[in-house]
Specification:
alpha+beta; two-stranded antiparallel ribbon; 2 helices
Length: 111
């Protein structure tokens, strides 16, 4: 490598077989879980991982307690389920090639 300006990008399945990738994965997961626990403590509610009815319920509870404008502090807003009708009371629907996507209204997620 010339002064770090060139890299070889290798993408492969089961990359965790490489010790460095496995170690990075473990460290990243630890950081994620640690920060999630800190957010739970900061906002006073359980923040379940993934996509489920429990996540929808937590989002609705979070919005009720802390307002939709704070949802980006604890949720991945680029995910399709970030603001489905169950979680955000005010929303607009946009139909795209992959189906309906529910988006929060500007008043819900103003930064």
């Amino acid at each position: 490598m010339s002064l770090g300006r060139e890299i070889e990008l290798v993408q492969k399945h089961r990359a965790e077989e490489d010790l460095a990738v496995a170690a990075a994965s473990i460290l990243a997961r630890h950081e994620f879980v640690t920060r999630l626990a800190a957010l739970e403590k900061q906002f006073g509610l359980k923040l379940p991982k993934g996509a489920s009815a429990a996540v929808d319920a937590a989002a609705k509870e979070f919005i009720a307690k802390h307002g939709a404008e704070n949802l980006p502090k604890v949720a991945k807003m680029h995910f399709r389920t970030a603001c489905e009708p169950k979680a955000c009371p005010n929303r607009r629907k946009s139909s795209g090639g992959s189906g309906e996507i529910w988006w929060p209204m500007a008043t819900e997620l103003s930064h």
